Amino acid sequence: MTYTISLIRGDGIGPEITEAALKVLEATGLAIEWEEVLLGEEAKKKYDHPFPDHSLEILKKNRVALKGPLIVHKGSEPVMIKHGKEMMAHPSINSAIRRELDCFANVRPIKSFPGLPTRYPPIDIVILREVTEDLYSGLEHQVEDGVAQAIKLTTRKACERITHFAFQYAKKYGRKRVTLGHKANVLSLTDGLFLKTAKEIAKKYPEIQFDDLMIDALCFQLIRDPTAFDLLLLSNQYGDILSDLCAGLVGSLGLAPGGNFGEECSVFEASHGAAPDIAGKKIANPLALILSASLMLNYLGESDLSQKIENGVAQLLQERRVLTPDLEGSSTTDDVASELVRILSC
Ligand code: ATP
């Protein structure tokens, strides 16, 4: 069987790490036909829009995509997409992709790999981030000169579906506990709604433990003892921040993969951004995208190949011979991909 999958090479380090991931996927022997989708900076250059209509059509048609990171410039304009007569504003191109495909659940497994020195004992946490609402709803206004406002949108419908997703994910992957991070003491209507909804839904899954913590207390507890946590359920902005925090706990942003899931489509991408500071230097760590590709294979039902890639990455990190500078190595992005291909072929 041949899979047809959309490929977004991305900006910054995107093309370099995507090339590495393609090389590793090819080594698995799986038949994949890639359909390239132009988005972000390259699409802006060619079509004068970061998210052209035909790119969205391809993503919807193929349903599964592997995505390199896309640059989000500070202070850039929202991405506007036409919906009939209305225009919908998305705060960034990354957010636009998730929201246009209704990929509401962003799953980011954060795992320590033996052999990599970190400050903490082995960590195995899943971050589940709702990615269609909250402060990244695209509703940001300049009220007047010197006064600006962003709306933190929270709906019961979105809280319900992400909470059900959390418990179903926990059941499927043997997670024992779901912890909701929020600030419901201050944001009583928005975070309060998420907390109330999650508590109600938790009763339907008595086999999974449910608890909640204020987001500040959760940060403190994570730094003190990250091994105490299992699956973290978070709204959009808290999930964004805690993803980087947890990636730091296991040693590098270059090790944090991710997948975005909806009813119809899914998009697999690393947690990190386009890292323009190191773009073109051939030193970007490709492992987060390679591990995202492994999540993609698992989603496609190719669990043996998915596990093979994850084991290969674990071996590469254990051996510590071929690592990029973020992991205190001196190898290039391509060296890492070639070494992984060698390990997979043994
Ligand atoms: P975004 O807002 O899109 O997440 P950002 O600018 O906050 O982007 P990143 O692009 O993720 O952040 O980069 C943060 C830091 O981590 C940068 O110094 C970057 O070089 C480094 N970094 C990110 N990804 C990698 C990687 N794959 N390999 C090595 N270093 C990386």
Strand and helix map with partners:
Blueprint: E1 3-8, H1 14-27, E2 32-36, H2 41-47, H3 53-62, E3 64-67, E4 79-83, E5 86-90, H4 93-100, E6 105-111, E7 124-130, E8 140-144, E9 147-150, H5 156-172, E10 177-182, H6 190-202, E11 209-214, H7 215-224, E12 231-234, H8 236-250, E13 259-261, E14 266-269, H9 287-299, H10 303-319, H11 333-345
The structure holds adenosine-5'-triphosphate (ATP).
Q: What's the quick description here?
A:
The protein is built from eleven helices and 14 strands. The protein has helices spanning 14-27, 41-47, 53-62, 93-100, 156-172, 190-202, 215-224, 236-250, 287-299, 303-319, 333-345, and strands spanning 3-8, 32-36, 64-67, 79-83, 86-90, 105-111, 124-130, 140-144, 147-150, 177-182, 209-214, 231-234, 259-261, 266-269.
Describe the protein.
The protein is of the alpha/beta class. It has eleven helices and 14 strands. The strands form three sheets. Strands 2-1-3-14-13-6-7-12-10-11 form a ten-stranded mixed β-sheet, with helices on both faces. It has a two-stranded antiparallel sheet with strand order 4-5. Strands 8-9 form a two-stranded antiparallel sheet. α1 packs across α9, α1 (14-27) packs parallel to α11 (333-345) and α9 runs antiparallel to α10. The two termini are 24 Å apart. Adenosine-5'-triphosphate (ATP) is lined by residues 13, 72, 253-254, 272-275, 277-278, 284-285, 288, 326.
